[in-house]
C-alpha cells in the first residue's frame, strides 16, 4: 500500500492564497460594467451597446463553476466560488439588457439566455448520467478550457484596436491590470493544485495580460511624446 503524500501547511496556504487573490481580482472585473448599466438604466435604452459579451461570460462562468465543484474536480473549490459570483453578476447584466433593449433585440437576447441555460443543463446531465470520475473531469475540463480561450477573443480585438489607432483610449489600464493579476493568480493556483484545466487557460491569459500592459505603456508613452512635440507654424 502506497502511503498518502503529505502536503505541507505552507504549500496549502500558498495555493489557497493564490485562489483567494484570483477571486478578489475577478470581482474587480465583474463590477467593471456597472457604469455602463447605470447609463443604460438612466437612459432607459441599451443604445449601441452589445449584450453578447455578457451572454458569453455567463456561459463561461456557469461551465467553470460546474468544473470547480467537488462532484467534478477535487480541490479547486475557489474556481467554483469565483464563477458563482460571476454568474450572478452576468445574469443581472443580461436581465437589465433585456429589460431596456428594443423589442427585436429583447427577443434575441431572451432566446440566447434560454439557450445558455439549456446548454448548461445538458452539460450537467451528460456529466452526471453518462460519465464518472476522471472522464467527467476531462469532459467538463475541456469545455471550460475552450470557453475560457474563446473569451480571450475580446482582449485580442482590443489589442488590435490599440495598434491600429495608436491610442490606449479603449483599453483602460486598471481593467488590463486586473485581468493580468486575476490570470496570474489562477495560473499559480492551478500550478499548485496540479490542475492543467486551470493553469493552461490562465497561463494564456497571463501572457495576453502582459502584452496588454506592454502595449499600454508603449502607446501611452508615445502619445505623451507626441504631445510634447512643438507645433509647426506656417507663415504666409
UniProtKB/TrEMBL annotation:
Main location: membrane
UniProt key word Repeat: yes
Keywords linked to the UniProt accession: Cell membrane, Membrane, Repeat, Sugar transport, Transmembrane, Transmembrane helix, Transport
A GO molecular function held by the record: sugar transmembrane transporter activity
Lipid bilayer topology: Multi-pass membrane protein
Assembly information from the UniProt record: Forms homooligomers and/or heterooligomers.
Name used for this protein in its record: Bidirectional sugar transporter SWEET
The species this protein was found in: Elaeis guineensis var. tenera
Phylogenetic lineage: Eukaryota, Viridiplantae, Streptophyta, Embryophyta, Tracheophyta
Amino acid at each position: 500500500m502506497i502511503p498518502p503524500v503529505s502536503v505541507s501547511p505552507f504549500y496549502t496556504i500558498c495555493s489557497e492564497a493564490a485562489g483567494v487573490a484570483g477571486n478578489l481580482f475577478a470581482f474587480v472585473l465583474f463590477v467593471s460594467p456597472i457604469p455602463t448599466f447605470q447609463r443604460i438604466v438612466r437612459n432607459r435604452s441599451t443604445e449601441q451597446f452589445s449584450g453578447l459579451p455578457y451572454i458569453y461570460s455567463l456561459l463561461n462562468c456557469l461551465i467553470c463553476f460546474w468544473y470547480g465543484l467537488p462532484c467534478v474536480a477535487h480541490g479547486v473549490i475557489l474556481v467554483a466560488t469565483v464563477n458563482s459570483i460571476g454568474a450572478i453578476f452576468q445574469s443581472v447584466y443580461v436581465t437589465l439588457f433585456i429589460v431596456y433593449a428594443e423589442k427585436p433585440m429583447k427577443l434575441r437576447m431572451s432566446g440566447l439566455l434560454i439557450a445558455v441555460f439549456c446548454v448548461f443543463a445538458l452539460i450537467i446531465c451528460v456529466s452526471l448520467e453518462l460519465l464518472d470520475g476522471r472522464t467527467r473531469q476531462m469532459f467538463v475540463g475541456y469545455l471550460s478550457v475552450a470557453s475560457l480561450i474563446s473569451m480571450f477573443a475580446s482582449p485580442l480585438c482590443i489589442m488590435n484596436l490599440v495598434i491600429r489607432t495608436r491610442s490606449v483610449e479603449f483599453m483602460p489600464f486598471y481593467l488590463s491590470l486586473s485581468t493580468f493579476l486575476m490570470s496570474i493568480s489562477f495560473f499559480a493556483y492551478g500550478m499548485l493544485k496540479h490542475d492543467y484545466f486551470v493553469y493552461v487557460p490562465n497561463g494564456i491569459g497571463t501572457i495576453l495580460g502582459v502584452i496588454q500592459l506592454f502595449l499600454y505603456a508603449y502607446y501611452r508613452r508615445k502619445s505623451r511624446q507626441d504631445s510634447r512635440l512643438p507645433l509647426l507654424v506656417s507663415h504666409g
